[in-house]
Amino acid sequence: MSKAPLFERIAIIGIGLIGSSLAHATRVNGLAGHIAGHDADADIRERAAALGLVDSMHADIADAVANADLVIAATPVGACGDVARAISDHLAPGTIVTDVGSVKGAVIEAMAPHMPDGVHLVPGHPVAGTEHSGPEAGFAELFRDRFSILTPPAGANEEAVARLAEFWRAMGSDVEIMDAEHHDRVLAITSHLPHLIAFTIVETASELETELEAKSRDDDVVTTREVIKYSAGGFRDFTRIAASDPTMWRDVFLLNKDAVLEMLGRFTEDLTAMQRAIRHDDGDALFELFTRTRNVRRGVIEAGQAGRFQYTENGD
Ligand code: NAP
Questions:
Q1: For 45-66, how does the pLDDT look when each residue is reduced to its tens digit (9 = 90+)?
Q2: What does the domain layout of the chain look like in residue ranges?
């Protein structure tokens, strides 16, 4: 006799990269009797339905969450409060509500006030992703061998936390539980700051390229786009990361402001020390630092987190 699925009906709100990957992984692993979907965007609803990602697609969010025992908000973080408000009158007691947002404190603040009695809010964050967006971008293995972090608020229902952890484990994730504030500080340095650096360096390079092109036009020289031409170097990885979804990342920086600014301050100090070492021809300082950072990379590989799809949150 086959085992009953973990949830009778899962509702996925927001069918982008993460939402569609959840739909694939839920189906492949037989984790739900029924997968319902909703996206605010009619075009995305149509595309997701055509791909057969869900069992039912709903234009009305209330219809999507009706009778669901698990609701997952897979929208940008800034939309989680609106989602919580829109579903709150339609949730059955005992329902688990979670999300996948890259920031956790702000999500709890935005969602918790709308949760009716008897509904369990257990926020989460799969530390897995790619730079792609939309329903076509998802795949079932996205969460395999990646960490999924749950940040249950104080007093959260333990059974709900355990059930949600089982859901993530069944999709191949390693589950960690921590408080939201800790999550937001850790991810600020491991994911949000690297993205900020990538966005900035790509912008700096592209401004420089525009200047060089203008100059060579003045000099009557035929120009090539050198940033693109030579991007096989370290720059290529920055361009990949900097191609990440603008809405998602705008929300991350605005909603994890304090932790990001703290890490940016620390980073700026270290950058200044590096600048000084170069200016003073301090090769020993540079060599020692590069040796230390090389060891960090070894640690990442040993922890099994050096995979291709890892977002720099994203490994995010
Ligand atoms: P995505 O591909 O852009 O998908 C998000 C979807 O949600 C879009 O279809 C969007 O529609 C829809 N949406 C926006 N507001 C909505 C609302 N109020 N109600 C219903 N649907 C709404 O984004 P994603 O990469 O899957 O990211 C989703 C969440 O996962 C974010 O919170 C992000 O922080 C988190 N996350 C992302 C990654 C990653 O690598 N991408 C990794 C881990 C966690 P429109 O496009 O029309 O707005």
A1: 999 999 999 999 999 999 999 9
A2: 7-178, 183-302
The reply to whether ligand 1 has any atom less than 6 angstroms from the CB of 17 is yes
190, 102 Cβ separation under 8 angstroms:
no
User: Which residues neighbour 154 within 8 Å (Cβ) at sequence distance 6 or greater?
Assistant: none
User: With a 6 A CB cut-off, is 126 part of the ligand 1 pocket?
Assistant: yes
d(CA 135, ligand 1 centre) in Å: 10
CA atoms within 13 A on the CB side of 94: 7
What is the CATH topology of the domain spanning 183-302?
A: 6-phosphogluconate dehydrogenase C-terminal fold (1.10.3660)
Mean pLDDT of the chain: 92
Assess whether the C-beta atom of 136 lies below 6 angstroms from ligand 1.
no
Contact call for residues 312 and 195 (beta carbons, < 8 A):
yes
Phi and psi at 297, nearest 5°, equal: -60, -40
Does pLDDT of 216 surpass 60? yes
| Dihedral angle, C-alpha 180, 186, 192, 194, nearest 10 ° | -170
Superfamily for the 7-178 domain = NAD(P)-binding Rossmann-like Domain (3.40.50.720)
